[in-house]
Structure formats: C-alpha cells, structure tokens
Amino acid sequence: MAVKYVYSFGDGKAEGRGDQKELLGGKGANLAEMARLGMPVPAGFTITTEACTEYYRKGRKLISLLDKEMRKALARVEKSMGKKFGDPRNPLLLSCRSGARSSMPGMMETVLNIGLNEATLDGLVAKTGNAWFVWDSYRRLIQMYSDVVMEKAEGIEPAEDQGVRKQLERAMDKLKQERGYKLDTDLTVDDLKRLVVEYKGIVRRVLGKEFPDDPMEQLWGGVLAVFRSWNGKRAISYRRIEGIPDEWGTAVNVQSMVFGNMGNSSATGVAFTRNPATGENKFFGEWLINAQGEDVVAGIRTPNPLNEDTRPMDEEHKGLPSLEKGMSKTYKELVAIRNRLEKHFRDMQDIEFTIEEGKLWMLQTRTGKRTGPAAVRMAVEMAQSKLIKPEEAIMRVTPAQLNELLLPVLDRDVEDKAIRLCGGLPAGPGGATGQAVFTADQAVEWAKEGKSVILVREETNPEDVEGMRAALGILTARGGMTSHAALVARGWGKCCVVGAGAIEVNAHARHFTVNGKKIKEGDWISLNGTRGAVYEGRLPLVAGAEENPYFTKFMVICDKIRKLDVRANADTPEDAEKAYKFGARGIGLFRTEHMFYGKGAEEPLFILRKMIHSSSSEERKVALNELFPYVKRDMKATMQAMRGYPVTIRLLDPPLHEFVPQSEDERRRLANSLNIGMDELKKRADELHEVNPMMGHRGVRLGITYPEVSEMQIRAILEAAAELLAEGKKTLPEIMIPVTCDVRELRHQKAMVDRVHAEVAGKFGKKNIPHMFGTMIEIPRAALKADEMAEVAEFFSFGTNDLTQMTFGFSRDDIGGFMPEYVESKILPGDPFETLDQSGVGQLVECGIQRGRSTSPKLKIGICGEHGGDEPSVIFCHNIGMNYVSCSPFRVPIARMAAAKAVVLENKAKKGAAAKPKAGKKAKTAAAKGKRKK
Amino acid sequence: MAVKYVYSFGDGKAEGRGDQKELLGGKGANLAEMARLGMPVPAGFTITTEACTEYYRKGRKLISLLDKEMRKALARVEKSMGKKFGDPRNPLLLSCRSGARSSMPGMMETVLNIGLNEATLDGLVAKTGNAWFVWDSYRRLIQMYSDVVMEKAEGIEPAEDQGVRKQLERAMDKLKQERGYKLDTDLTVDDLKRLVVEYKGIVRRVLGKEFPDDPMEQLWGGVLAVFRSWNGKRAISYRRIEGIPDEWGTAVNVQSMVFGNMGNSSATGVAFTRNPATGENKFFGEWLINAQGEDVVAGIRTPNPLNEDTRPMDEEHKGLPSLEKGMSKTYKELVAIRNRLEKHFRDMQDIEFTIEEGKLWMLQTRTGKRTGPAAVRMAVEMAQSKLIKPEEAIMRVTPAQLNELLLPVLDRDVEDKAIRLCGGLPAGPGGATGQAVFTADQAVEWAKEGKSVILVREETNPEDVEGMRAALGILTARGGMTSHAALVARGWGKCCVVGAGAIEVNAHARHFTVNGKKIKEGDWISLNGTRGAVYEGRLPLVAGAEENPYFTKFMVICDKIRKLDVRANADTPEDAEKAYKFGARGIGLFRTEHMFYGKGAEEPLFILRKMIHSSSSEERKVALNELFPYVKRDMKATMQAMRGYPVTIRLLDPPLHEFVPQSEDERRRLANSLNIGMDELKKRADELHEVNPMMGHRGVRLGITYPEVSEMQIRAILEAAAELLAEGKKTLPEIMIPVTCDVRELRHQKAMVDRVHAEVAGKFGKKNIPHMFGTMIEIPRAALKADEMAEVAEFFSFGTNDLTQMTFGFSRDDIGGFMPEYVESKILPGDPFETLDQSGVGQLVECGIQRGRSTSPKLKIGICGEHGGDEPSVIFCHNIGMNYVSCSPFRVPIARMAAAKAVVLENKAKKGAAAKPKAGKKAKTAAAKGKRKK
Q: CB-based contact (8 Å) between B826 and chain A?
C-alpha cells in the first residue's frame, strides 16, 4: 500500500506524532502526542487530511481504498478498550470529529455515539445498568446523525424550521409539554423509547430514508460527513476570514466514546492551562457533572468553575461546586497533566476531558486561543521563566492580538459612574459601545450602513459568524468562557461578554430586559469585555495599551531585537505626542494639508481657499503671506513634540479642488473676500475640476506651477526649526517633495530650498539650519529612475498607497466595484492596499532601493502609508533593506513587533541556509546586507 | 593661442570645411566649402559658435581675446579684395551675418555696409562714380545699425511705433511726401544727404548716443549684435518650435560686401537647385535687377523668374524678364555652379548670389528647405538617378514632410466649381480652409478657442511666427517663393499662398478686398497651397497622398528595408479600408466601444445603455442578446475589410459611466424601456460614477464582474469569424483583454473564450475557428509580471497611452494644468504622450518584452496607441524587438518610414560598432536580436 491514510493511537502508543499537524490535523496530532506521553487518551485513529483531499478527487470510491486500513485500526481500538464495535453484549461506541491543521471551532461537523443500534442498545443497558443514559444517547445519535450526515452532508437545504433537526426538537418539546416537564432530564426511559420511535418516523418522512442500523454504515456516514463539512458554507466563510487555504482539507478523528453523563461520578470539562482572557498563569476551566462535552460549550447550562482560585466572584458563580473540591483526586491528576502538557508543548493548552465513573480521560489538547492581552502576558511571562526564548515570545503574538491592547477600552472614570445593567463573563477584551441588534443579519446590515452595533443573543451559534464579525461587541445571556461566542470573539480580539444571566433576550420582539429595564433595538449599550460588564448608553472609549505592564515589557523584547527604525505618520502635536508614547522615534509623514481639516482649522482653511481661488501670482502671494504664520505654528509645535527626532514634512499634496468650499455661505464669504462675483468664483473653482484628480495637478506639480506655494511651506519649516534651535531645542526637519517622477522636479524644488535656507539662516544669524531634502517614491517612474532621483534626494520615502494605485491602475476610491469579486474569486490574494503586493508593487520598491543606493549608497530609505503598519509588509521592508517604517500612531507597536519578527525570521532562514549550504541565500536578503545603517 | 576662433575664406581657399557646421554654422561651413571648390565667394571670415558660447560666459571680455585674430583675418580679406577697411580712398565694406548649425530664417540679425563713414563715403563715391548708391547704402547702414545694434542688441524695448527704426522710416516717408515721391529710388543724392543728417539726429535723440563713425567700432557692434540675437525672443521661440538646443550658439560671418544695386548690370538673386515646392528637378529661383539681397526676400518688389522654364504662367509674371534671357552668360555660369553644387552636396541647395557690375558672386549655399511632396519626390528621384542610396533617401524625409502628403487637400471637384478670388504663388502645400484673421495675435487667440483660421497679411515678418503656426493656412499679398512667409510655411509643411497681388489687405480695418469683393475678419476662405489659389467660403478637404506617384515609390523603398510589421487602429470597415490603402496589413486595435459612437450608432448605443443600467445579471443578459447582432455585424464587416490579415479586437474597455445619457429625452426613453422611474435611473447612473474613472471599474474588471458582457463579445467575434470562413473568406481574429494586471484575470477570460469557442465551433460544425488570445500591457504591474502573463497570452499589445498615464501618474485629461510649464521649464523634454518616454515608460516596455519572451519565446508583440505612429517611438519599438506597430490609418505611412529608418540606423550603428570593435553594441539591440519573426 503506497499511502497510509489511517493512524492509530491509544494505550500509551501512537503511530502519529505531535508534529504531524499537516497530515493528522491539529486534534489528531495532539491526541497521538498525548498518547505517546502516556496520558489517558481513549483509543482511536485518525484518517489523514490527504484522505480528505483524495475524497474531493475520487468521491465515494475512497471508501474501498480506506476500508481495509480502517477495519484494522478499529480492531486495535476494540482491543485497547476491551469492547467490540457492534457487539450486542459489549458494544464499542465511537465519536467522529473533524480536525483541520488549525482549529476552526464549531465550523465543521461532529457525530457522537456511533455504533448504537437496536442490537447494541440492550447490551449497553445491561453493561452500564443505566437504561436512561443509553436511550438518551440513542436519541442524541439519531438527532445529530440525521441532521449532520443524512441532511446537511447530502446538501439538502430545507426551508427554515423545516429541517430535520428542528422537527425532531419540536417532537421532543411537544412530548415535554404533554408531560409537563421542564428539563430534558425529566424525560423517563419510556418517554425516550417513544421519542426514538417518533424520531425514526420523522427521519423517514422528512429525508425519505431509514436511520441506518448498521454500525459500519453509521461510521462511514460520519467520516464522509466530516469530509463534506470542510466545504460547508460556514467553513468556507470562516476560512476566508482567517485566511486558511481551501487545499488543506480536514482529518477525521474516530475515537472510542467515553461518557461524562453516566451519573454523578461522571463529568466533563474544558480547561485552559492559563487564563485565556488575561494570560494569568492559573489553571482555568469549566466543568459539568453528568454531562457530555457538548453541554459545556453549547452554553445551555452555566458550567462550574474548575478550582477555587479562578472562581468568578459574582452572585451566580458563588455557589457552584469546583472540581478541585468536588473531585479532588481527579483534579490533582488533571493538574499534573496540565503541568506536563505546558512543559511539553511550551505553550498554553486548551484541553477537553471527561470523567467516566471516576476515571479521567483526556479527549483533546491544543494550543489555546487567547485574547491579545493574554497572548502578550503569556509571551512575556514564559520568556521570563525561560520556558521559551525571547525570539519565540515575539513570534507568539499576532498583530491582531497586539492590536487588541491598542484597541479602545471604556474610559474608567466614566465607567465607574455609568449605569451598570449587569455583569457577565469577560470573554473578549476591550470596550465597545454601539446600538443593540438581535440578529446576525441585522448586525451585518446596520454595520454596512456605517452604524456601530452590539450583537445581543441568547447564545451564538456558527450561523451567527458574519454578524459577530460585523458587530463591534457581542453580548450573550448564556454560555461560559469556552462557549462558541467566547471562542470566536477571543480569536478575533473582539469585545465580548457572555453568560450575562441577568438578561432575557427576546430576539423576535427585538429587545432584552434586565433587572426590569427594557433595551430595544437601536438603543445604545456599552460593554467592558475585559471586566465582564454591561452598561446602558454610549460610554466614551480611550486607548488601552498604556496601562498594561506586559505590553511595555513585550515591546522592550521586540525593540532589543529589531533593526528597522519605527516612525509615525502624524500631523498635529497631539498625534506626535501619542506616537511618541507608542514608541515612534521620528515622524515619517507630516501632511501639510491635514492642518486644514477638522475643528480649529476654519481660519487657515479659509485663507487656503483664498489662495486656491486666486487668479494671479500676486493675489496668491497675499493669501500665502496670511497663511504663513498658521503653517509655521503647526509645524513648530509638531517638531517640538517629537523631541529632536526627525520630522518628515511633505509639502502640499492633494489636488486643489479638494479644498473648494461646498456650502453656499462659505462660497459667498470667499467671493466677498476676493472681491469677485459668485459667477467668477464658480468659474475659478470649475477650472480646478479634474477628470482623474489622483493623476492630476497635485504634489510637486503644484510646487512647480505655483512655486510661491512651495516657497511659503519651505520657509515655514526652516523658520520653525530656526526658532526651536534658538530656544535651545533640538529638531531635524526633512523636507519631502510628493508625487515626483523625474529628478528635474527635485532639482527645481531643491534650488528653492537652498535659496530659502540661505535667507532664513541669514535672518536668524546662523550659518546652517540642519535639514534634509528628499522625495516620496510613489509614482512608478520615480522608482524606475531612482538612480537619478538619489543624485538630489537625501532620503526616499516610499508612498506605497499611491504606488499601489499606479502600479495596479486601481483608484482606491473606486475599487468597491470589483475588489470584492477579485478577492472572492481569488484573482487577487487580498486587497493590495492592506498588505503590500510584494511580487508586483514590491518589485518597484526593490528597484527603487537598489537604484537609489547605486548612486547614493548612504541614502536613507523608509516607507510611509498604511503598509508601514502591516506585519508582512514591514517584514518585506526589512528584508529589502529599508532604514525605517512609518505608520499611524496606533500601529507603531505592531510595526515594532513586526520589525523584530523580521529579524527572527531572517536569522531562522540564515540558519536554514547554513544547514543546507547548497540552497543559496535569497537575493533580497543579500541586497539588504550591510546597507541599512541605524 | 589655445582656441582658434576665426576661420578665413576666399580666393579659392578656406581654413574651414563644409563638414564643420557645428563650429562654423551652416552658412560659414558652406562658404568655406564653396571657396574650396573654387567658386567666386567674396572673401571673409567666420567667427565660430564657440566664440558665441564663450561670449555668453565672458561678455565683452571676449573682444580682447578675439581682436588680434580678427584683425589678421581682416587683413587677408583686404588683400584678397584689393580694398582696405576704413580706407577713405579704397574702402572695404563688410556684411555681418548670423549662421547657426541649422538655418533659422529671419530669426537673427544681419548688418550690411559696415565700414561706411564720413571718411570713406567720398572715397567710395570717387571709386564707383555712383554717389546715389553710396549715400543710399549709408542711409541703409544707419537705419539697420541703429535698429539692430544700438537698440535691439542693447535690450531696449520701446513702446510700439517709438522704436528708432519706425522713427527713421517716418522721417523718410515725410521727406518723400514733401517731395511728392512714390518710390525710395525717387530720392535724389541731396535728399539722401539731408536724410542722413536727420537720421543721425534721430539716433542721438532716441538712443542717447552717436551713430559710430569708427569702422572697427561698427564691426564689433555688428558681431556682438549677432551673438546677442541668438537669445532674442524670436530666436528662442523658433528654437522651441524646431527643437534646436539653446547651447548650440551661432557663428558670425563677416564678408566683404558686393553690390547688386550698382546699376543695371548689377543684380541679386535667390535660387533653389530644384523646385522646393514640388521637388521637380528644375533650376528654380528669383532675382531683381539693381537690388540688394534683402530686397528679394523682403517681398517688397515682386521678383523676376530665373529662367523661362520655371516662369509662373499668370498675368503678373508673364512680362517679367528672366536671368536666362537678360544676362545669359552669367546665367550659364550660375547653372554650371548649380550642377556642381548638387553633385558635391548630393542634395538640393538653396543659394544666394549677387551680380556686381556683371561679375557673379556666390553669397551662400545651404541645403534647401522643401515641402513634404518635394522632399519625397527628390528622395525618390535622387535615389533613382543613383545620386544617393535608397537608405539615404529614406533618411531624407521627415515625418512632418511625409505627413504633408497625407494632409488634406481641397476636393478637386468642388474646387473646380468654387468661387475663385484670385491666384498667388504656391508657397506651402496642401489645402486649408478657415476664417480670415489679420494679425498674428488674433490667429493665436482664435486658434486657442478651437477656431480654424487663415492668417492674411500684406507680407509676414518674423514677429508673425506664432500666429503663422496657429493658423491652418497663410495668405500674403506680396512676396515671392523665397519670402519669409514662404520659407517658414514650407519648413512646417503648412498650406501657404504668397504674392497674391490682387488682394489689398487692410489689417487695421480687418478686411481685404479682391476684385471688388470684401472679405471681413471671420469670413471663411479656402487656400490651395499646391496650386496657388484662393477661394471664397469653406471648401471640403480630402486626403492627399493617394494620387501622388512619388509617395507610392517612396513607400516601396521603405517597405523593402523595414522589418517591423505595420498595422492600423481601426474600428469600422471604412477605417479598415482606408488603413489598408495606406499600407496597413492587419488591425492592431479594434475598439469595441467605438461602435457606439457617432452617427448610425443610436440603436446599439441605446441597447448598450439598457445593459449598463440593468440591475441584475438577467436584465443585463436580455440587453446583451439584443446587442449581439449589431456587435457581430460590425466586427464581421471590419474583419472582412482587412482581407484575411489579423484583426485584434479589444473587449469593452471604458468605464461604463461614459455611456450614461446626458439629455433628458434620452434618459426618459431609457427609463421607460427599463420600466423604472427617473429617480431609479438616476440612482443607477450615479452608482456608476467614479472619482478616478481611468483607474476604476473598466476593462477586464468589467469582464470579471459582468462575465456575460465579455461572453457576448467573444461569441460575436467567433461567430463573425466562423461566418466569414463559411463564406470562403480568410480571417484571423485576435481577442485582446484590456487593463489586465494579473495572469489570473487572463485565466478567467481565457476559460470563457475556450468554452465559447467550443460552443461556436460546434454550432458551425467546425473543429476549430482560428483565433488568438492575448492581452494589452498597459498597467505597470502587467509589464512587471509579464513572464506570468505570457503563460496564458499568445500576444502582447503595449498600450503605451495608459502605460504612460500610470507610469507618470499623469491623467491625460488633466495635464493641461502643468504640462506646458513642465515642457517650458524643461522638466520634461516634451509631452510623453506624443513621443514615448524611453528612459522611464520604455523600461517597463522592455521589461515586459524580455519577461514575456522568457516564458514564451514566440510571443507576438506589438504596440497600439499613438506612439505607434511617432518616428522615434517606432524606432524604439524596432530596437527592443517588437513584431509590429499599430497606429491610426493616417499615420501608417509614417510608421512604415520610421520602421525603415530604424533598420538604416541599426545598420549604421552596427557598422560603427564594427569600426570601433571596443565600443560594445547597445544592450537594446542585442536583446532584440533574433527575437522578431516576420
């Protein structure tokens, strides 16, 4: 047999290993690893991801290829567990679960209790002495199997409420109603037997098929259903969001069932080796007595705390029993396993366990999802305790996780005085404020309209994923820290409060009530997902990272390793201050035009408009003289806020038409001030209109046609610097010319800078005012002619936003018409404005660097624009030898981390190359070698 | 002495040579060459262009550097001519003329009769016995010198009519009026003496200086005035138009005066060795008895014909004496010189001669300017007679000259019946129709407003140049074939009729009268510049080249040599037909959308609009089905017109918003047809609006988001081809995808082509319908990723219009705001949309070719768009290894010629490289080697 598709595990042995995640999926590999570690894993086997891929090529033919191998593995399981699959006297029951390379919680299917049938029912009753448990299990099997295997996997899409699952649920609800029962557990064995008969009838009627009685048929059904669920709508949508390739496929884990629902000495639980919300190094989990695993995560019952130390301190949790106290021996066993697992896997683990009549079974271990704050804290603490190296700590945190720390939280002062509606579990970090909505669809719709929404649900399920993504925050009435809502929210770093038991959600009527208050659709509420609290109204949010000590420590680790400098894009003293706090050392992009936006800019904006609507150089100069003090003031304040670090000031960039006033009043005031009629004003404004303003009269083109506009800015920069120097403060302005395509544009502007510099230096009695002269590289031609550009420019700053526009011919304002389709049908891997298109636009960036340094080896090179805060793009910038990246203040920490990761990856690649000396180093790394100066 | 600044000539000897044009200027080099050939050249010397350049560096200091050298040369002249400069008894008089590398007629200054002063006057009178001539010469010297040297060269810019020239003219007019004279020659010697006194007084009063009496001072004044005139306004403006570098400078030719105005045995003339208007191989020229050279070109007197054979046959010329008859011995001498000159210089020469009391003096020879038809005819005839090689013949014709042949002429049938106002000399070729204007400024102004104008002047002078350029045609009342107007018009290939003596121009009143008719400003007139005729009204124009036999012969010479294929951009059967006639063999660009423009397209346009305003794929498909037959019909007809040659059809390219109807009526009809309200229609149209449509939802982006739109076009193309094949006709459609940036776009469209092809082939019972699949390369990223693109595309067509837009970030619609300034201040050498920017955009084109052929060595590569008809761009396309160029039908002959020139230049470069084996061949040529297949 050429290919091995089935890997057995159990009894302290396993055919697979923990590092075979690609082949066995995450769950399968870790089950094998746990078995190898001698942990109590119910025996089973894993069908590989290759089998899944093969299934998509061959279809049902795969069965015959697999059958022999699977029967052999099944025999081993029977031997290990001392039971036989389909044996009426001592039947083995199996679970069948998906397991992809990376976890996709709730996105694919699971079938439990496979092997129960008319024949084995009685044998199991006889063996367990628990008829209720057996009949309940059978009822669950039919319910799950008919839904997952017989309906969904066959691609049947019934109208709402007509699906087999709903019909079976209704049958049970009807019976409970007839009997006057409240809970499922109130049903008697006879009730269950009647229900089973009814269930089978419904299956026959709705699906036109019998519920299969043959255990092997059941098993095959389960296996194929898992395969098929890989291409279910929800799974595809999840993969798209998470960026998981469709080609990976899922493995199938077939494992002997163990039961946590065999009475009060049985239990089931889910735990994290450290707190996944805060990162605190405490064993943290939830469990339920007499329950199956799905009961814990489904959020139907509020689960108990694992131990006393991590028990939530609210009313609801105060009285719940902990495993530590209730089953102390088993708890100790579990703690020992927890300690071994963390040491072995060197990361926080997310584990599932079941206690079957007192015996502990480990069902799963995997690297646990965590919030951003938790990821950072764990990385720092694991590095401190030498569990991992600093380099590894850096690689442990994703940009999204770091972003969570930077995301807003509720303003603590305001929060303390706000109207608290209720508490809940802190399932997703940070703060959120928005309007309440009660369905996922509504969340998506309102979000599209630009509204801020909080999705409020009784509990969430996988169908809600899109709505959860659209919402700023999620609130559920039920479920624990391991519920679906909590897992998904944590994965995304989204603010989330779960298990807020005090609220009663009426999705149909679109409101919820809490402590006598009614919150209707559209009402504003606020969440604190870090504390677990719900407030009425719209509370203000503030930046989160500054108070987090682990954040600071983590950044120190990153800064020690990284080589790239990190600057910020900032246009005001406030932004510069914020950027400095986030660790920016220098401003990479100060946009002169931004001083004309927003509040407080009315007067300079008005003068700017006068300038723009001038019809002669003389008229324009009058307005420019008026504008000068404002411009100098703002530049000086920003330079001062950067404490002597370089400040790159880009001269006026946008097409002038952007500043034409829209309101009648403003137009009239402008016309009066210019002493012209409204017609003349309109004529002048119309002359500024352009067909494609992005490629029109802007940037240096303005500086050349209206040199007086450049001159005013240059003078403002140099005078601001001179004044600071005179005040004994340090500063280094870098004058940057935008939208250049030819060195002669630079020569034109450089001559002006030199002239104005001489004048200003003379005025201030100085020989020299330190400054630099450079250019944006944002037009393809500028990159192609970079050797010439570098003869005049002392620095380059790659404007990859515009460079992406020109290189793709994509107007960023207009991609809405086709970009979603392009990404959906995989014509592009993603929006190139988010992550730099390394293979296309990146060629021009590399070309620009190489050619620029060919004539000016010491050329300072950076990037400004949004790619400067995107992890893969920053790594690329490092690899091709830039000196710095610049991004918005909030992204500065992400850039610092990405820059450190770049070094770690580079060293790794070097090691790899050293190990395989024949595989030459990448040209990119070579090109960058020794070129970057700190 | 390190640098030699002065080169003597005369007496059958010369220090300079004819190939030293860069150093001596064209005139100086040719005077030297004529002297070497033993022709009768008045002795003189040339001050080099280097001296001019040096003058702009050192100013008047140059005088001391030059003085010694010049005095030495002067002594030689004195010896040769047997006269002495400043000698009262036997004075030598000198002329001082400019002479740049290439002729700039009338743009720079000339001073004649230098050396006449109070002392030499009487000596000259004694020697010549012609007091009148001497005093008239003195009068002329003061007039010319005070204007050129004392006023203009000093940078004095008097108010209109206040200049010294005008004031002197007024003094003479006043005297003539007092005396009742009509002509200048009516003045007596006493009158002239009185005038000289008056002149000197006016000079003193107006310029505050004495007219210089020292001959050497006069000479230096003349030399420096010539230097300064290089940077005069008119000269700069001319250089800009002609593309002459400012750095060249001008030489100064100082030459002994000979006089054509010493009585009736004296004469002066200007001639061409062949007819410069038609190219006919006949000695052609004009002369005047008892006149100085300036009289012939100034157009004040109508000159006489040189010989009987070329005498114009109209009333005015019938009675004039020819040199052939009037001075037959001298004429024969001149003919012998003419024959030697043509043989020596191997090109048509433009010569000036003077006959001083029976002795022939050659004053100048230079390569003569010619009209386009003349250039082509001469090239063909000189090649036929083996005077030059075919390669040289090709290089002799400029694109502008060839363009003249393609330029419109008056429709002969209509012309024959039109109202003929009068005749004139055929000074500039082709036909023109426009509104009469009477000043150069008015011509410029009206042309800017988009009007077609004919500039009508008594005579033109260098101040009129801008207006002449702006006009479509030029008409003057006076002047001959060598007048200013004629020379300039011929240089530009502009339609021009001169010497239309029947008209009386009243520029002040803005009208002219002719045979009792009054034509006012704004009235339409039409010119036949090839025949020399003026018509009333607006006559229709037709294409000119087809009837010209020399054109056809010239094209055959080109086609034998060129290697590039030449195709045309054509969107209709009519255009395809025209293109075929102009020699296009294949269509390089058929723009689907053009079938929706213009007359006859109303119905398809309406359906297209329905399609565009559809809100669902279904609605769209209905409209597409309606559109299909129109599209197929047009494609089929165009393919058929191309007679089996390949036709590249570009799928729909522009943003849909371009087709939104503007008129209320059309909008209403559209809304009705779509069964929607006007509000809904507006909403749908608004959704199509884009901020930067050039980079928006267009080209293949439409084809991917609305695949049904691509599919309809593909089906139309393949069905059209299948139908033609079924009719026994050959065709090869090439399906071209526009605006691509990634190979996956091509894969998407290719899959559709393959599917539709299978369907259409099936429908027509064929296995295969021959077709090709390819892409535009017009987005920078497509060029960068050309290796991947070529894995799917079978051909590339470089769309350098869009590629230039994206590479420069220049929206072609919006460059008006800065491009003039960019060209004016030399930031760019020219508009990159006219001539391909080889060093920038060209890099991407080369990159695209190299990478494309790296994965697909046989890739067919061409260019479409306007650079395909621009000579330097076509040469570039040849050098980098393209297979074909495609351009508008009218430019096809230019492309054919440019492609031939490319081969000639390539062979020349190869020979050069072979001669100097160390200088490596250019990489470009190497890259192209062996790649192009015919």
A: yes
